[in-house]
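Encode chain A's predicted structure.
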Amino acid sequence: MKSELSVDFNNSFASLPKDFYVKMRPEIMPDLKLIKFNDSLGDLLGLPCKKLQEQNGIDFLGGKNILTNQEPLAQVYAGHQFGNFVPQLGDGRAILLGEVIDTNGNRNDIQLKGSGKTPFSRMGDGRSGLGPVLREYIVSEAMFNFGIPTTRALAALYTGEKVVREMPVPGAILTRVAKSHVRIGTFEYFARQGKTDKVKELANYVINRHYPDIQNGPNKYCDLLENVIKKQAFLVAKWMGVGFIHGVMNTDNMTLSGETIDFGPCAFMDSFDLEKVYSSIDVQGRYRFSNQPYIAVWNLSRLAETLLPLIDENQTAAIKKAEHLLEIYLPLFTEHWIEIMGKKLGIKNPKTADKALIESLLKNMQDGQSDFTLTFRKLSSLIDKNHEKDWFTLFSNPKKYELTNWITEWKNRIELNDTNRPVILDQIKTNNPCIIPRNHFIERCISEALNGDLTLFHLLLKSLETPYKDKPEFDEFTKPPKSNEIVHQTFCGT
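Encoded structure for chain A:
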C-alpha cells in the first residue's frame, strides 16, 4: 500500500496565459530509483522528506506520480546562443512540476531535468544521462555552500532506461529548485514577435515575484532592469572569485532572479588562466573566464531591448534611459570584484586602490600557472608560518623577486601584527575554500558511477558541505590534478 503523499503547491506561473508554456506531464520512466536526496533543502522547502524517499515519493520526484494540485508544464523561451538568435527554444528536456513556498516564505520552482520529450525538444530525446545529472548536483550544491546564488539539487534519480549519447549510458533525472526559471530568453521570445503586451505581462509577473518593492515606482520597468543588472553584477563577480567558468552564458541561461543556472560544460579552474575555456562547444572562446563580465552586460543589453517599449513610449528616450542603466554594470561588477578579491587577500575593507595589488598577484599566477584555489588558500601559511618557499612551489618557474616584493606590499597593506593575526587568518580561510569540485574528481565520480559505484560521488558531496574548513578526511579533494589527470574539455551532455 502506498503511503499518502502531500505537497502544498502554489502555482503562479501556470496562471499566466497559455502563450508562456505547454501544460503536460513528464514521460513515465520505467524504474525510478533514488540516487541522492537533499534532506536539508527538502526541510527548507517544508517537504515531507521521509515520504519522498519511499517509492511513492520517488515516483513524485521523477514525475511518475502527479499530485492533484500540480500543474506540470514546459516553459517556452528563445535565446541568443553563442551570439546567434534562435527564435524558439524552451524546455526541451525539462518540466516544471510546480511551485512551493518555503519555510522562509519564499516561492520556489521544482523542476525536472531529463524527464522526456516536450514540444520544445526539437531533435532531442528529452533525456539526460547519468553524468550531467551528477555534475549539476555536485556543482550547484558547491555553489550554494560557497554562498553564490544558484539553483539547487533536490534529488537525483535513475530512470531505469539507457540513454544513447556517444554510447548507451544510464538515464537519470535531476529534480532541481530555483527561485524561478524566467530567463532573458523568455522576454526575447515575445519581444521578437512584437508582442509587447506579453512582454509587459511577463515583466509584471517578474516584478511581483522577485522585486515587489518596485511595483509602485514611477518607472517600474526601468527599476526592473536596474535590479537585474545589479543581481548579475554581483553573481558574476562571485563566480570570478572562485575561478568558475559557466561555459554557456547564452541569454536563455541567464535568469531574472540572479541565480546561476544550467550547469552544462561548466568547470572550476585549476591553474590560473584568464583566457581559460573548458566547454567543448565554445570553440571561439566567447565564454572564456575573463570575458564573463562583458558577456553578462551583452546579455543584459538584449534584455534592455525587450523592455524599451515599456521604459518609454519615445524610443529615443527609452534607449537613452536603458543605456544609462547598462553603464552601471561594469563599475558595479568591478566594485564587487575588488571587495571579493580583497577579502580573499585578508584585507578587511578593500578599496579601489587595492585593484593594483590584486592584479599584480593574478599576473604572477598567470605567469607561474599556479593553482587558483590553493594560491589564495595558502596565503594563510605566509602569515601563520611565514613559509614563503612553500608558497613559491605553487608557481612553475616562480619569479621569486617579484613574488617577494608582492608579499612585502601585501603584508604592508594588511598591516600584519600580533594583535590582528588571528583575525586576518580567519578572514583568509573564510573567503578562500580549500575544497572545490575539481574537474578530475567530477570526472572520476561520473566514471565510477557509470560502473555502478557512487561512493566517490557521495564523499565529494559530503566534503563540499563545509568547503572552507580543513578536514583531514577530505585532504584528497584539496589536491590539484596530476599531469595525467588534467581535464582539458567539458561537455554539455545533451
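The first strand starts at residue 21 and ends at 23.
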